[in-house]
Amino acid sequence: MSIFKNIPSIQFEGKGSDNPLAFKQYDPKQVVLGKTMEEHLRFAVAYWHTFNAIGNDPFGSGTMVREWDKFSGMDRAKVQVEANFEFMEKLGIPYYCFHDVDIAPEGATLQESNKNLDVIVAMLKEQMQATGKKLLWNTSNMFSNPRFVHGAGTAVNADVYAYAGAQLKKALEVGKELGAENYVFWGGREGYETLLNTDMGFELDNLARLYHMAVAYAKEIGFDAQFLIEPKPKEPTKHQYDFDAATAISFLQKYGLKDHFKLNLEANHATLAGHTFEHEIRTAAINGMLGSLDANQGDLLLGWDTDEFPTDLYSTTLTMYEVLKAGGIGRGGVNFDAKVRRGSFEADDLFLAHIAGMDSFAWGLKAAAKLIEEGILDKVVENRYRSFKEGIGADVVAGKATLASLEQYALQNHPIVNESGRQERLRLLLSEVIFSV
User: I need a labelling partner for 300 at 20 to 30 A (CA). Which of 201, 255, 312, 366 fits?
Assistant: First the structure.
């Protein structure tokens, strides 16, 4: 059955097109810096927002109108599988991502949940073989069910911890069965509300133990996906242990996990942490930890995770600039962890939103490539640090300097002449590049 029967296959028509169901910037076969756009961006559909979000909020019930609304339970899950692959085919998106409970409803017992998963996984595998679509990553939802009220890998209840381990084991098996290129750990409840009743050290130790178990089991079953941790500072818990890229990297280093994990970074999570997306990407990249991206944007006027589709061209340009400077995204991708607004409730809006996000990232890719090809920012940075190319600066970089030699140099009382950083000029240059491609 066709779920989106009124939607044609979305094609690239270029800037002059006034067709809303067409790409103006994203041409999957266009070569940019030696690779096609499709190869650079590796777009993915987020199963949870695209097929499960109903448009509810704390002040109102759902608004979304979906073809699968007439179904429930496993029947609904089966229709959503068909919707996923039709959606990917019509948009030309090569990858998708999901949590276990996104694709199959939880049962009354773990056995029933696993049985439901097995049915849907078989359907997904059949569709993947038929269409050539791939699984960018899968993960476990160990935060929605009330059993995880006090966490999963950081639970205060050993029975809950055991359930989390069993759910994780199954998810790793699902990832292997479907050939997932990555596996994400997002600790939605791995944090605390107050230290008055929390043993932080013990909880972190237990979380690391769970991750080590996952590494061992993946090796045991031959699941060679890249493991990813997704940082988020708050919401749902007040203090989450994976606050930002730097915090997650520190955790991985402390517990001997750095060689087994990279980071899945999300733009809106960066905003909540008080960072820009490009800051988080740069932090991960300089530590060899850049894994994958969740593409969305937040509202700076709101203090929660709004998960809007990315349309800020400055952000997409700087995001792709960091990715390109880091040598690409490897096995990762650009997953649209974004949901249409509550007022955008028609099925067509799902396509329009993804087109907006894909065009925005394609635009950003082209602008970032121009920045790199013309060395616009490289020249600025190189000139700014030129004093470390000779004299005492060169000694510092070469490891020859000591505090005594620095003092000896400073006592010569050379005049110190600082130069402007010219931020305003650089911002205008960035605008000129973005709107010239």
Answer: 366
